[in-house]
Design brief:
By secondary structure, the protein is α+β, with helices and mostly antiparallel strands. It contains 2 helices and 5 strands; from the N terminus they run αββαβββ. Strands 2-1-3-4-5 form a 5-stranded antiparallel β-sheet.
């Protein structure tokens, strides 16, 4: 596990792909919390959700950084480096 995210160059201003988990909306599933891919804007559900679409997106696309899409939260998570952080 790294001490800091080494993928800051892959963080972009993005537009969320959906108002909820894109994949759950398509399949009729449910989610607990939302995570926004900061590489492409994919909106996926967290690992507490049944389908874990945000993590599945990371494994399929290798986009390393997601940001919490929950109101009042601003933290990011780097899957590759296994580190949480905030942008300053």
């Amino acid at each position: 596990m790294a001490e800091a995210c080494t993928h800051l160059d892959q963080i972009h201003e993005v537009t969320p792909s959906a108002a909820g988990c894109e994949d759950c909306l398509r399949s009729g599933g449910t989610w607990v919390h939302l995570r926004l891919c900061r590489t492409c804007g994919h909106m996926g559900c967290c690992d507490s959700s049944p389908a874990k679409h945000a993590t599945a997106h990371f494994h399929a696309q290798e986009h390393p950084v997601v940001q919490s899409a929950e109101p009042g939260e601003s933290w990011l998570w780097c899957y590759s480096d296994e580190v949480a952080f905030e942008l300053r």
